[in-house]
Design a protein that fits this description.
CATH architecture: Alpha-Beta Barrel
CATH superfamily: Metal-dependent hydrolases
Oligomer: single chain
Number of helices: 17
Number of domains: 1
Largest sheet: 8 strands, parallel
Order of helices and strands: EHHHHHEHHEHEHEHEHEHHEHHHH
Shape: globular
Strand content: 5-15%
Distance between the termini: 17 Å
Number of strands: 8
CATH class: Alpha Beta
Length: 337
Amino acid sequence: MIDPAIPLIELHRHLDGNVRLETILDLGRQHNLPLPAWDIEGLRPYVQVTGPQPGVMAFIAKFQWQVGVMVDFEAVRRIAYENVEDARRDGIDYIELRFSPWFMAQPHKLDPVGVVEAVLAGIAAGQLNFGVKVNLIGILSRTYGPETATKELEALLSQRARITALDLAGDEANFPAHLFREHFRRARAAGWHITVHAGEIAGPGSIWEAVRGLGAERIGHALSAVEDPILMEYLAEHRIGVESCLTSNVQTSCVSDYPAHPLRKFLKAGIPATLNTDDPGISAIDLPFEYNVAAPKAGLTDTQIRQAQFNAMEVAFLTGEEKQALLKNRTASTLNL
């Protein structure tokens, strides 16, 4: 269960994987898009996962209409804004939202620089109206290859002061991290934090490369880390956070079921692992679900769930002062209950 005395934090949520079904229908009607259905229940199986997928890329295919309705910058701004509202509904105090401007731009050939600006505008308005603290993580979509990643990086760097970190996501099997070393060198030089999707479908070597080659301070998923005891010790010793996404990993068939998930092993090893939703618009979940339903199914004790909640504050891309402010605000809210 969620501990009300600790700030509720999400570190791994794709804003382009969290588009409301209602918003897809509304934008589809506005722009005469060829949606596969025109009511919520009819649309649901085309957008949300209704059973285990044969792999990560099959899961990613569910993004078709999540990004397919991003017809212009106003649609992008609206979706970013609604992500902040959704975070407030989840009871989240602080969230790091990540997005791939190239991926979002492609369906309607938008300018990726304009996509970045629209996301920033929506997030700024959402923070003002809903009071949720948000930091943004830019994604390089490895699936397009290193050359396109350079263009995507340039789009993100156009707003470098308003972005907190860089991530690498997409087809891990065919586009290994070493192809993107120069991109991440530039990101570190810009002062950004680094988190990398690694070990989701590739082996421990992918995680080692993310840490040693790209400078990752956190790892998204990191499922294969349990295959390498030395890596497990390294992650714990160097306080490299793991962004665990229980339901997502079951749905992508990266793990067979909740009890098979390695999150318990991460926590027992002293790794600062956390609970996250990944793509809640596709998985049809929210962060409370991951704490209250998925974590117990994965065999976590109440103490371990609390530790995961606390870990999120430890490895969040925030200053010490910002973390103390979050804790102070949460304490004040608890006293007022």
